[in-house]
Amino acid sequence: MTEETANANACCDENRSFSKAALFSLALALLMPTLGVSITNVALPELAARFHASVATVSWVVISYLASVTTFIIGAGVLGDIWGRKPLLLLGVGIFSFASLLCAISGNLWLLIAARLVQGFGAAFILSQTLALASVAFPKAKVGSAMGLLSTTAAIGTALGPVVGGGLLHVFGWQSIFWLLFVMGGVSFTVCALFIPNEQLKFSATVKQYDVIGTLLLGLSCLLYALSVTAHSTKLSVSGTVLFMLAIAVFTVFLISQRKRRFPLINLAFFQHKLRNLTLAANFLVDAVAMSTLVVGPYYLTYGLGLSVMEIGMLMAVGPVVAACSGYPSGKLVDLIGVKRVMLLGLLQLIVGVVCFAWLPVQFGVYGYIAALFILTPGRQLFLTSNHTFVMSSATNQEKGLASGILNLVKNLGLMTGASVMVAVFVSQLKNENIALATQQDLGAAFTSTFLLAGAVIGVSLISIYLFSANNAEFK
């Protein structure tokens, strides 16, 4: 072996280990905002008792975080494209960690809610930059694996949240939840600063004129939409319909402003890629259906099968655990056989899983519920991993942050929509408005029809993507 060959091999080994360290750093950073979503849910009853607040008021501890992420996610992604993704990731980790400290020392509920709002702002930077950095830091043949690992990390964070939060709450009290996130932030900041490579940005000076007005308009429209789909559970004085119409109006103004501005927040040419638009729409529907399993499922488990809270909690962890196990293999499969095959396979398996979810729990109870999740969840991971790979790979280097922001925005909107609309569909099919008084037969019929409808919606997405991609050489 020549000296040049040995040096080249050593360099390749160094780059390979560095890439693994960078990917681990991104995964650690991503773990925080995903934990931030689920770890506080278990503490809501304790917070209600501690601050003598109503359930509707305490729910803002969760809603403020989600609304903040949804509001700022696009702007955070675009800022990463302009000022550098690593600096913006570190900024996000710093803000998230500082906000966690504020949460831990909050003396009243409204300070806690305000701190959660700031925490969501930091989470928006983390979420928008992790996918963007992964898509540019690794060769195209390895992007699928990177996306799969990040998808697995997100699922692990969601699964661990209730377990870790419950344990900390039982032993140390609710403040310990936020102290944990604060410590994780410090560790993540150090690791990311050390192992994520610095970018050499060579963008033109024109993109540095950031569209503040566009950011405010888009953020306001997203916030109004988030409030509209959660209005029924938060007892707002304004109806959800009015808030939704206001969201549409503000979003229309945003689109007009983007067409007229010389340097818009979002270059609307990004949405001229019709196949990518279809996959984003499918992403919205898939996340809405996935969330519906988490919010409609417990109603049937409680009133239809008569399970205890502890039993329901254990069952609710099945989906995230299966997702965590199937995320990375999904990414490897994308690298092996291509985005198109995995995406179509994922949608097909998801349809089968949703149909099984509609039928098996009603026929076989808990065992049917678990079996359906073992079919449905890997299908969702196959789709999400391939979709994220396709969207990020089809974006130019100057659009990576924007693409990552849009993916996360679509996800959040889908989750909120699923939590609202699918519950409304389920309840609307019950003969008795009080779900606790509904018969087991009525509950089963409503549960089955709700998820058969969800399966039909995913089927439309599968057919649309298959037909539109038939002659698309880019989609392989």
TrEMBL record:
CDD domains xrefs: MFS_MMR_MDR_like
Boundaries of every Major facilitator superfamily (MFS) profile domain copy: 22-473
Domain of life: Bacteria
Cited InterPro entries: MFS (IPR011701), MFS_dom (IPR020846), MFS_trans_sf (IPR036259)
Membrane-topology descriptor: Multi-pass membrane protein
Chief location category: membrane
Keywords on record: Cell membrane, Membrane, Transmembrane, Transmembrane helix, Transport
Protein name (database record): MFS transporter
Source species of the chain: Rheinheimera aquimaris
